[in-house]
Design goal:
Elements: E1 2-3, E2 14-20, E3 23-29, H1 35-53, H2 61-66, E4 73-74, H3 77-92, H4 102-107, H5 143-146, E5 153-156, E6 161-164, H6 176-192, E7 196-200, E8 203-207, E9 215-219, E10 232-236, E11 239-245, E12 250-253, E13 256-259, E14 262-263, E15 268-269, E16 274-281, H7 284-297, H8 301-308, E17 312-316, E18 321-324
Antiparallel strand pairs: 1-10, 2-3, 3-7, 4-6, 5-6, 7-8, 8-11, 9-10, 11-16, 12-13, 14-15, 16-17, 17-18
Helix pairs in contact: 1-6, 6-7, 7-8
């Protein structure tokens, strides 16, 4: 990872942008001839992920499992892989990233694609309240009542059977989008032999031979923000980069604002000294796991990321930053 090299040329880079999962997807390729086939591969992967893991489709495997009342379900290979990634994330973070936050998100009104949430806010439920520093806080329902924990999820990967206990309700949002980015990048590079960058709402995976100067990525609070927004531009050549933030995917619930990163210890939106955390790792899934856990861990996050050797940029609620490992020095305009 390095700072952006402004001499990098994008003349040879093919790009494709489209909407998926209620967010924006971007494909960048080192071969213009591969663009159409790359999009077809991505469409196939993303369709399988949506059919397997969407919490907003009543016909998805996840929705059917959540409604199964603890009965065993035979699942697809895609669903088994998505769930295995989620359980690995939970294990690696000691449960800070937990796939059984489905009921907690539903209680906050997050029951459809984010783009479809009412602009005027959601009725019902008490939601969360703002702290004096502008960060978000919330009620602390009993963990067992709303986030029973990842050990209530049982996966027999070989038999592709899954069952839930203690009323667990799955949400794979913390890892599924990043896993999908990894899978798209891997399959496109393997099939077409070119370099590829896949960004799904800012979850970035790269594979294959990169451009000569690497892939430039603008790191901001919101992946949809313009390049002029406060942030930093970095370059990666392999692996993935992910950003988690409490400033995006927020919505009004009554007279309060809530966000989508749930602290499993409380079942409420996480309260954190960090508004945004970006992490680079060997895969986008690992980067996303670490960035989400860092929001939840708060002040302990830099030491944890340092011990793991993960380059990260953590932005406090006042806009000041902390970096770990070999994350490059900030750009002059970085907030």
């Amino acid at each position: 990872m390095s700072r952006d090299d402004p001499r990098m040329s994008t003349e040879t880079i093919a790009s494709d942008t489209f909407e998926v999962f209620g967010t924006t997807a971007v494909l960048l390729l080192t071969s213009h001839d591969a663009a159409r086939r790359a999009r077809a591969i991505a469409n196939e992967v993303l369709a399988k992920v949506d059919a397997a893991g969407s919490r907003f489709r009543p016909d998805s495997e996840l929705s059917r499992l959540n409604a199964a009342g603890g009965a065993r379900a035979v699942v697809s290979e895609t669903f088994a892989d998505l769930l295995a990634a989620a359980l690995r994330a939970a294990q690696l973070t000691s449960g800070d990233v937990d796939p059984t936050c489905g009921a907690a998100l539903l209680a906050l009104g997050y029951d459809r694609d984010f783009a479809d949430l009412p602009a005027a806010g959601l009725a019902g439920n008490t939601g969360t309240a703002s702290r004096a520093d502008g960060s978000l806080t919330g009620p602390a329902p009993h963990r067992g009542a709303i986030v029973p924990g990842w050990r209530c999820v049982h996966l027999d990967h070989r038999a592709r059977q899954v069952w839930l206990t203690h009323g667990a309700q799955l949400d794979l949002g913390a890892t599924a989008k990043a896993w999908a980015a990894d899978r798209c990048a891997e399959q496109i590079a393997a099939s077409l032999g070119c370099g590829v960058l896949v960004s799904l709402g800012g979850d970035v995976a790269v594979a294959g031979p990169p451009p000569p100067e690497g892939w430039r990525i603008r790191v901001t609070d919101d992946s949809a923000a313009p390049d002029s927004a406060p942030g930093q531009t970095v370059t990666i050549t392999c692996g993935g980069l992910a950003t988690s933030s409490t400033t995006v995917r927020t919505w009004e619930q009554g007279d309060r604002r809530v966000h989508h990163i749930i602290d499993p210890a409380t079942g409420a939106p996480a309260t954190s000294c960090w508004r945004t955390v970006s992490v680079a790792a060997g895969t986008c899934t690992d980067a996303n796991t670490a960035s989400t856990a860092a929001i939840i861990r708060g002040g302990a996050a830099p030491g944890w990321l340092h011990d793991l050797g993960l380059p990260a940029r953590l932005v406090r609620n006042d806009g000041t930053t902390v970096t770990t490992a070999d994350w490059p020095d900030g750009d002059p305009e970085a907030a």
